[in-house]
Protein 1
Amino acid sequence: MPGVSSTWTGNSLQVPALALSAFAVLAGSAAAQDGCAEATGVPAHHMLPANSDTVHWGYFSKGVEPAVFANSGDLITIETLTHHANDDAERMIAGDPGAESVFAWDADGKGVDRRGAGPTDASALGRGSGEGFGVHILTGPVFVCGAEPGDVLEVRILDLRPRPSANPDFAGRTFGSNAAAWWGFHYNDLIEEPAQREVITIYELDATGGLNWAKAAYSYVWTPQTDPYGVVHETIDYPGVPVDHSTVEKKEGVLEGVRVPIRPHFGTMGVAPVEADFVDSIPPGYFGGNIDNWRIGRGGTMYYPVAVEGALLSAGDPHAAQGDSELAGTAIETSMTGVIQVVLHKASDLEGTIVEGLDFPLLETEDEWVVHGFSYANYLEELGEAAQSDIYSKSSIDAAMRDAFRKMRSFLMTAKGLTEDEAVSLMSVGTDFGVTQVVDGNWGVHGVVQKSMFAD
Amino acid sequence: MPGVSSTWTGNSLQVPALALSAFAVLAGSAAAQDGCAEATGVPAHHMLPANSDTVHWGYFSKGVEPAVFANSGDLITIETLTHHANDDAERMIAGDPGAESVFAWDADGKGVDRRGAGPTDASALGRGSGEGFGVHILTGPVFVCGAEPGDVLEVRILDLRPRPSANPDFAGRTFGSNAAAWWGFHYNDLIEEPAQREVITIYELDATGGLNWAKAAYSYVWTPQTDPYGVVHETIDYPGVPVDHSTVEKKEGVLEGVRVPIRPHFGTMGVAPVEADFVDSIPPGYFGGNIDNWRIGRGGTMYYPVAVEGALLSAGDPHAAQGDSELAGTAIETSMTGVIQVVLHKASDLEGTIVEGLDFPLLETEDEWVVHGFSYANYLEELGEAAQSDIYSKSSIDAAMRDAFRKMRSFLMTAKGLTEDEAVSLMSVGTDFGVTQVVDGNWGVHGVVQKSMFAD
């Protein structure tokens, strides 16, 4: 893993034997496959904790060494951390060895140096290594043994629960941060002064799952924060900058009496794209990634087209709750732990199945199928060399709706065997299109198909 | 009412005394108010059938004479007809005196001549009177006694049921038409040949309400249809053109086994705008109109800002089912009968209520508040003289999302007393934005607020 300062190696004690062994594997496909155990027919259960050795921060990459090797059918307990934990370190980091190892940062080094797909010498903007071109802490990747380009990876989310605060002062409680940030849809359209302001609202939820709602704890307006390297962050422009609470004014009693329904989900989960070595974690695409659809939660199943050997599945950006559109830029960003099961569908077995020809991330829930459209279905390919910066100037719900329409048609014709005319009529009278997000560069529209419409 | 040929006056027998009396009222506000009965404190129940004397076709207008006068609190049983009934006249018109009077059309005249807000001499395109610039058969208007600009009209939809087929061959059944039409989002993006085609799919549903789903009966591709005046309609370009079924090829067995969930609603309901004398019924706006949100159904309550004296509420475009986006251009277009209650909120009483300052159509359901954003909040005012044509070249979900954001903020701050920062955070983590429609010129995005989030 990149940039682990010797300061923090003590945290490698957190890494169980299986994950550590992953790091002994050399790059290169033959060597990578060597990490695979022989399939026994009995699913193995892997533990994948989140710490500075098992996360990559702000990017997907086909070059990241696997954190775990899994055969089709294996289960993985996967810890994920919110990259907003430093908005209130007392509540979301303190006393939590995994989180502390990831967020560790002093004048001598960082637990995880590279944060984003940008230059590691911060030569572009001076923000820091990786420049924050991509922000999500991603746990993994999971190398799925036998997975090759053209296959489809099914990922079942069997469980997903908030990570309790490790601070004894907050026992039994969990917290999350909502940042109404400069990349939000609202930012240049505010009516109160100052007209451009970033607001952090800390939410609290029940760590035991006994309550199905979150409430706001307090809020503060972002003030310039100086990171341990001395860089001043006027806005929220680099992930994991510790917020000095002596510099902000906390507002209590916000959203009094308001209960936000809990919708635990992975904001970001996906396989490694093939198009570039380091891919900004913010814009979603055919490989999944930062889809930010709150339906990708417990009981949900994702299907991804595999683009590189081993698929290299990573997950992070856990959300306790989010609305369709994620309007202000973030959800209730809350660390969570999931149990997932990976099931590999080989290219040769896809014909006649619902995922034949699948070239986008498809969600299945108990009651629904959900297709994901984006402003660009595959912006990495469509926008050429400058794709990773250009995508941010090409955000469009109109274009995402166009893409969602095409994917819905494709799904109904492939998975349900409809003619084009049948598909078009049905999607007009019986399927729903919603705004997934308007804050991730490659904006999203999802299309929802109710399973109950079909007799078979 | 415009253009009622003497051929069809026999149908005036369908009009009950109360509605007929409305037509004796002269235009002009003093005279209009004269149609109002003294409020007794006991709600009156008015019957408003749909026939050639009680509908206006394809436009809202402050100049249409009231079909009924209602005091605040009165109930109205209102029949509404789908303008697509002539796609299968045997199933949707035959034997139904009200529908026959409206759709009547032979070489000598039409039951309702003007169809649309265009020129009545068809001088623009030669399609026919009104040119089909606006297509919905609207029943009404209801003159709400005492309503003035600045007031808010609440309309409760107490009931809404499909109109049974009057043809004995189809007893107990109801039918609707879905047109995948040239104005659909899919039209220039088809993969099968012919690349541009319009497809009518006739759906069947249970008229008794015993089944909560519709099924497709058959479909056909639109062929050029010659109307009784001899005008050939290459595409679906004028409402109510009788389809000669000997010229189309019916395809049976379409969407076999598929059950479309029933969502009965008014596609179009609204008050008369003040900005123009004849307003195309297709683009929705601040006055409501063709919102095409399937949530505007039984149990729903709409709030409209009143723009002209008497409010002049009309309803039509009934839908048995529709998905969010209405992608192909129409829903399952099915004649239906509703029971509505009108409640007037005077401008002087609005302060401190949820509808203070309301300048858009707001929906309340049992569990939700729904704000309606459009590409242009008030296109009639914003786009100037050519607004009614220009709006079709300015359709944008992006713009509608912008408008929906602002309305959601306004609602949360006004109705729920939140600060702007609270509203922005809550809408990101707890409210949902969806694509209402992408086919009505002034495209729509709706924002949904769950009532259960609020303790009071």
Protein 2
Amino acid sequence: MKLDGKHMRTIWVGEDGWSVEIIDQTKLPHVFETTPLRSVDDAARAIRDMLVRGAPLIGGTAAYGICLALRGDPSDENLEAASRQLNATRPTAVNLKWALDEMTHAVRNLPREDRVAAAYARAAEICDDDAECCRMIGVHGLEIMKEHGKRKMDEPVNVLTHCNAGSLATIDWGTATSPVYHAHEAGVPVHVWVDETRPRNQGAALTAYELGHHGVPHTIIADNAGGHLMQRGQVDLCIVGTDRTAANGDVANKIGTYLKALAAHDNDVPFYVALPHSTIDWSLDDGFEIPIEERGAEEVTQMTGRLADGAVVTVDIAAPGSPAGNPAFDVTPARLVSGLITERGICRASAEGLLELYPERAGDEA
Amino acid sequence: MKLDGKHMRTIWVGEDGWSVEIIDQTKLPHVFETTPLRSVDDAARAIRDMLVRGAPLIGGTAAYGICLALRGDPSDENLEAASRQLNATRPTAVNLKWALDEMTHAVRNLPREDRVAAAYARAAEICDDDAECCRMIGVHGLEIMKEHGKRKMDEPVNVLTHCNAGSLATIDWGTATSPVYHAHEAGVPVHVWVDETRPRNQGAALTAYELGHHGVPHTIIADNAGGHLMQRGQVDLCIVGTDRTAANGDVANKIGTYLKALAAHDNDVPFYVALPHSTIDWSLDDGFEIPIEERGAEEVTQMTGRLADGAVVTVDIAAPGSPAGNPAFDVTPARLVSGLITERGICRASAEGLLELYPERAGDEA
């Protein structure tokens, strides 16, 4: 990720060699601020309160959360308790459980005195692996971008994306944004329609922020606008991320993704979902089994922004006393997905498609 | 419309007998404030800056705008100039042109000295007619609500609506809300999912406000959430309004309506559009010919709300420097519409359906 011209990741070990630094994403785009995590409680809070968000980054943070827990107490009991605590923070993204299982697997057969070092090593690997997966998603996605680029001649390829499946949602590169960044670097003209993504505005606040820092042309739109733009031929393809992909290719992603997939389908606009292997839940043969998080009403009825003097304030925007509902994800059925872009290549959104790329998983699926 | 237990309309002639009073809807739901219109410029500004909005209320305000213009100068030239000025305020709602044509027709053959009185009389008729049309939309729509009510036993009928097609968008009753109010009064349990309706939040700000004052149970949701709720069987039917309906049954309505119609279609949820005759543009045989207003980027990048101390402020919510696009309407093709609820009854969304209700229009359509 490029910020103010410098390359950085979203999570790293601090100069003290053990605390974990993150960007507090609840403060973006108004204030850029990093904050240290020094305990498993800090890590759990960072995930639950969405200082970090995005399935891959949630996984990376949970991995380091285990490291922080084991520093205090490397016992089996504490490993289990920390894993349980972190796993309970958010229900939908499967990378969380995946990373916790990986961490447990990496340390449980080691003597206690070796566990902390092994945990930090495995957490670093998980993060490096995610960054590399996201880079490869971009390498494969670039081919799609080039195809569209050829058809558009010198016109920019118009990509619509929903929420932030960008560098900020991962360790680096992003999932949905990686093909965009690769295209931009390869000289394929690209323009991104950024869905605002209510209620937390991850599009307007985070995706627009990182695209701006990378110099990628983009336009923020209300979540309501994408269908209209597709009807008018102003979207060449959609690329989104996913918080959990079932073995049949159904994808849970930020609430509203399903609506965009319907519009893409209705207008023959290709609809791609970009994901690393860690987002696939091989135990689910149907996306409608994925638990959908219900979040607080205040995310809908309030909004945080900058006053003209730069002060950041939260305001009530809805009719006083009106209740609000806030489901955070929806499930897009595989039939609406043109393809899955993974670190191993692009496949159809189906059990067969996924098993062609991950043949070692044959038999794992439900 | 009931506000604080009192019945009121959205537009009326002031106590002086000539100025026109409106509710400044840009201040809702934070502050309830009426404001007088004393000139055609005031009326044009009220429409353009959306102190009044909603196709029928725009029509009523334009009618009174002609009255105010003629008070100063009842000449043909001024009648034409005022009509042109008002017609240029907003491009999508056809009620604007319809009302202006009605007003011109009402006064142009009269001597100048009789024009002002005739204009006020016709404007009052236009408003009374709209209120009666909206009441009848509710009478017909109530039958649909009762049918769903029977199936739901004692459970509330869950209606999803988008934007504000309520009393505040009309003279009284609303279009989409009229069946809801009639059901509520008839003792049919009803609950409304209120789409927030970004970027101007007419759902969270206006629909929730008026449903609350009427005591109708409702829940505000992000525009992204409706598809998910339909997938989970939590929506029994959708009812929305329209700013212009083509002769083939295609409907232009607030941006995002098309996405909800797609989701309703995908989940076998009935999708109704409620409208008075004045919203039908018989000259257009295809909704995609309807001009779509592009509004300012600041509606997307800024938000107005209440601080804890009650002060109303506007904040920047998006990444600094990021551009935004703001198409204000989209077109829902007739194939996605289950039926049109009009003052004359309910018909299929098709040329044939509309002509069954409006046989006198045979030959008028394009």
